[in-house]
Structure formats: C-alpha cells, structure tokens
Fold these 2 entries.
Entry 1:
Amino acid sequence: MPISPIERGIFISLFNRGGAVLDLTISDFDSLTFRCVGIPLCKHYEKSKGKSLIAFLDSCSDEDALKLLNELMDYYELHYESEYTEPGSKADCLYSFRRYSEEYARLYHKACEILNRENAGYNPFEEPSEYLKEQFSSDYMSSQIDSLMRMREENPTDAIGKAKELVESCCRTILKETGVGETKDWSMNELIKATKQKLDIDTESVSDSLPEAATVRKILGSLSGLVGGIAEYRNSWGTGHGKAADFEPLFVRHAKLAVGSSITLTEYLWDTYLWRKETGRLK
C-alpha cells in the first residue's frame, strides 16, 4: 500500500531539522537526491533542504518516495544511532555525541515499521534487472541476474559474489564487442578502466564548460569506488574464497547494497555502450 500523507509526515518530522535535512549540506543533499531519484532537490525547487524535501514528497510517485526515504533512513541510521538507541543498550555508537531523544526514537521506530511494510512488497531493482536481461543476449548473463535477485535475500553471501561477477561479465561483453582481445586474466580494476576508456567516460572527458560538470565528475568518479567496494565485499564475504570455520555471513541489507550497486553500475555502462554504438561514437 502507498505511504500516506500522514505517514510521510512522520519522516518529515524525523529528518527535517529546522529547515535542514539531518546534518547534510546543500551540496551533499543534492548529490544524494540526484543519485537516488535523479533530481537535485534544492537546485530544482530553489528552496531550503527541508522545504525541498516536503515539496518532492508532496508531488512524487510512491516508488520515488520509497527510494528516497530508504536512502535517508540509511543515512540516519549510520549517523544518528545514539539518538534513537537508549543509553546503555549499545556501548559504541559511531556518532555517540548525539544525545538520546525519546521523541526521535518514537518517530524512528514508526518510520521503520512503514519502510518494513513497504519494502516487503517492493523490489527497487526489478525493472532495471529485467531491462538488463533483455539487453544482454547471452543466457549466462540472464541467469546471473536471476541468481542475484533470488540470492540477495535467500543467500546473501552468494549474492555478494554474484554482484561482482555481473559487473565483470558486463565489462568483458562490452570489451569483446568493441574488439578488445582476451581479458580472462584481467583484474577488476583493469576491466573497469578499459571499459571506461572504450566508452570515453573517464572523469577527464567531462567538459568544464558544462554547468553540471562538477556533479557529473563526482558521480563518474564514484564508479571505480563502487567496483572496488563490490570486489572487496566479494573477497571478504562473498563466494569465491575459502572461509574460516567461524565465518559469519553479512546481513541481507549488505547483500542488497552489493546487488543494487552492481545492477546500477551495469545498467549505466551498458546504456552508455548502446548509445555510443547506435550513434557511431565508439572508439
């Protein structure tokens, strides 16, 4: 069921801090919202962070509302844990300088109930994963995507391994289609570097004359970080490496992070490849 206006008000009360949104700067807030829903809210609405958030939630789709509220909740849980965790119940909150608030704790738990209800019936990667299956002609690539979507909750450890394999397969497919030779022994960094060069999406290729150049550079510069993070996930917690007897797998949310990152990155690389191929701009 959709998040009602009253329920959206719970999130506003939790995140809106006197016109600000948590402790996010305007730049960070715009980057977060652009990455999440494709709109830098403050720049778009020309209002404060808090008012921009309210304006967006008043007019956006249920799907976009859920995407953004999940993203803000992730940020809140990381930076405000001591605000909703009763003193003494957790010894080492990362940002322990924030004081416990009974009111914010109440709002937090209500917000969690709403998100848990909505996320139970919502898969934010269903549409892009189906799109990728259609675009990749190989049965192997489609089976990888199917495995990712199934395993991210059933078997988080395997999902993390598959997340890295999806990006690798995408890069190898693009490089093969563009005439690059054998890449079997290439590392992840070598694959992504060569793919970015083939698609001409290195950060240096963004013209300073573009008004959005700084934002584009920030997003493109994060691609390597995404890939590196997925590779490290796989090396430490995913399939492909032996584990000690006392190995404890990560939670489902960590697998979802790896899967979401891999699908988003793969979709971007493949879309860029298709666009350059269709317009005759491949190197």
Note: The chain has a mean pLDDT of 78.
Entry 2:
Amino acid sequence: MSYGTKHVRNAGDNPGTIIGIPTFTELLANTALASLYTSIRHSSTATGPELKKSTNVSKKTVYEYLRKLEQAGLITETGEEAGASVYEAEDFEMTLTIRDVEVTITPELVEVVAHEDEFPIINRVLEEHGLVTFALVHDLVKGHREGDLTIRQIASLTGLSSGTAYDIVEALYEIHNLGDDDSSPTTYTPDDFADEDSDPLEELPDE
C-alpha cells in the first residue's frame, strides 16, 4: 500500500529511528494527560488551579502532569497569575518509522485521544488496529468531508469494517467540529462509490 497523507507516509527502503521521548508517546495512551495538554493548547492562558477545575484528576496529578509536560518541552511557563504559573502549549511533530511507513504524532491526534472516554471507538481502533490505521483514518476524514471518499472506501483503505469506519469517522467529525452542526458521515448506495480499480489515496493532495 502506498501512503501519502499528512500523518502517514512511506519512508523508503531504510527506515529511520524513533524520534522523541516517552512523554510524547504517553500522550496517545493516557487520556488524562492528552486532555490536559489539549486544554492548555486551546486556552490563551492556563494555570494549575484552572486545569484542576476542568479535569477529573487530583490536584497532585495535575501538577505531576504539568511537570512532565514541561520537562518534555510540550508546555512552557510564560508568567504568573494570582500566584500560579501560567502555561502555554508548544506545537510538535514526533515521527516514528514502522517498517517502511512514517507515522507523525501531532497535537491533532492527541486531541482525538483526549476524547477517548467520550468516544470508546477511539481506543478500540488504536488497540485493535494500531497507530498507523488510527492516523490514516484521521487523515482520510478530510477526503470524506470534501466528498472525495466514501465510508466504504475508507474502510477498504484502512482495513476497518464499514461499521467501525463509520463510527470513528463520526467521532472525528464531532471532535474536530467538521461540517454543519447537524452534519454526520454520509452513507452511500453502491452506485455512489468510485471505480474500485482506482486508488483513492493517489487522488488526495499530499499535505
């Protein structure tokens, strides 16, 4: 399979090494940590007390996570407000090479993981199908939104069942606020599908 989306690319014949530190990969396994990072990223300012009010973890855990994220360079202390440190999130890209495929972890993927408790399908796709499939379906949603891909095609490209593909696409629509307020993934009849002999990935722009 040839990949060429934002988060999943073919790396060539000589895969490189994993780039990053454990905290980066923990963002994809720890919903609370992902949620804390995402909250800081979406806030103009974020302090420990503010984050404690918006999370379901203890005060001690909030400050442990803040220290962990700061040590990893994922957040930066920018000042002080009412005696509390103010933080802002740093954007990042962490690239892993899995066989001959590069997978890039970004804040966009972390934000999806932060909603895992709300959408169990996220954890199911990650656990049962792996990071490459998770990142690939994330990128293919853009093609679906623009009418270039159907649910059936996304299922074929990722190896997911049509039902699982529908569920994860629906979750991504809600998380990233895609389309109109009442929009959801569109289902299609067989006549709506593109030529099955073509490779839909080849028609998508490489971003």
Note: The chain has nine helices and six strands.
